[in-house]
Design goal:
It is a single chain. A hairpin with a 2-residue loop joins strand 1 and strand 2. The strands form two sheets. Strands 1-2 form a two-stranded antiparallel ribbon. The chain has a two-stranded antiparallel ribbon with strand order 3-4. Helix content is about 55%, strand content about 5%. It is mainly alpha-helical and about 325 residues long. The radius of gyration is 21 Å and the shape is globular.
């Protein structure tokens, strides 16, 4: 869709993007060892949809399936199951969701190169940033393991990078809305990023004029269809329009509590500790360090993320992206 505001010429996906995608995909596929995961919640969900119902049959141990009124329901964001539908239609329950994670991660890496180019970052530095994003962050580990939570992380990051690349490009409101909706329906906390990103897209700045009201309304209206589908999906599962799956799971989980929501402030200190200070475990032989069941702090896995601290929140884009980062990290 075009808007009333003329957009500047922007670099799109190119032969360089295709090369980056192919290299990243090859590395990712090799690193997976082509192993599958037993935590294939989204494969089970896609299989259920293809057989005409929204609950899954007799989940194996370890699957986050909530028993509710005689059936078991997957509580995680449903969109990865949408991506898996054509593969599950062919391979059934033997579908390897780790392969999908590798493809999505490679798309994210290629999109990051386009994003950095549209941000005006010179080629050499851009190459280092792309390499760091693809192989110096948890994206690599998540795609290689690709259990239910990690697959969701990879898919959500892919849609986020595509949305940001579009945001620094033509800023087509309908496409932006679709990408952000898919991101949110993959990892629910990322819905909180839509507010600052909407301000970034339609609030105007020193470089671009304020977007037309037509573009803003197109963006809002394009968010509606997937929101309606999500609300209907909730009602079909829980007989209420809100998503109570995580809350019910929290009330029944051995590490949860019998009352209240799963998001509480008394979890914040440990979350901050795990983000910045949680160390790896030590072993007696190579490689001597290994992740714990609670993970490892970003300080140790991706120390180069410290360069983000150079971004001043006093700039408009700095304020927007710091706000989105903090809001999505809180839950």
């Amino acid at each position: 869709m075009t808007t009333d505001i003329e957009q500047p010429a922007t670099r799109g996906f190119s032969a360089r993007s295709a090369l980056i995608f192919c290299v990243a995909l090859a590395v990712y596929l090799v690193s997976t060892g082509f192993r599958d995961t037993v935590y294939n919640n989204h494969v089970l969900l896609a299989y259920a949809w293809l057989h005409g119902h929204i609950w899954i049959d007799g989940p194996p141990p370890g699957i986050d399936a909530l028993p509710f009124q005689g059936h078991y329901y997957i509580i995680e964001g449903p969109f990865p199951a949408v991506l898996l539908l054509p593969f599950v239609a062919i391979f059934g329950l033997q579908t390897n969701q780790v392969i999908l994670a590798a493809v999505c991660a490679a798309v994210a890496v290629a999109a990051s190169d386009v994003l950095f180019a549209r941000m005006g970052i010179e080629s050499r530095l851009r190459a280092w940033l792309v390499a760091f994003f693809g192989f110096g962050t948890v994206l690599w580990w998540c795609e290689a393991f690709a259990a239910v939570w990690m697959l969701a992380h990879v898919v959500a990051v892919m849609f986020a990078m595509l949305a940001l690349a579009e945001g620094f490009g033509k800023r087509r409101p309908i496409l932006m809305a679709v990408l952000l909706s898919c991101m949110t329906l993959t990892r629910f906390p990322m819905v909180l990023a839509i507010v600052p990103l909407s301000y970034w897209l339609f609030g105007g700045d020193d470089v671009r004029e304020a977007r037309s009201s037509k573009a803003a309304w197109s963006f809002v209206l394009a968010l509606v269809p997937l929101f309606v589908v999500y609300v209907a999906y909730n009602y079909a599962r829980w007989h209420t329009f809100s998503d109570i799956g995580y809350t019910l799971w929290y009330h029944n989980d051995q590490v949860g509590e019998p009352t209240g929501p799963p998001f509480k402030l008394h979890y914040l200190p440990f979350n901050l500790y795990s983000f910045f200070f949680y160390p790896p475990a030590f072993m007696d032989d190579f490689p001597w360090l290994k992740p714990t069941s609670f993970g490892v702090a970003l300080t140790f896995t991706s120390p180069a993320l410290a360069i983000a601290l150079l971004t001043s929140p006093r700039t408009r884009e700095g304020l927007v992206f710091w706000s989105a980062t903090i809001l999505t990290a809180i839950p």
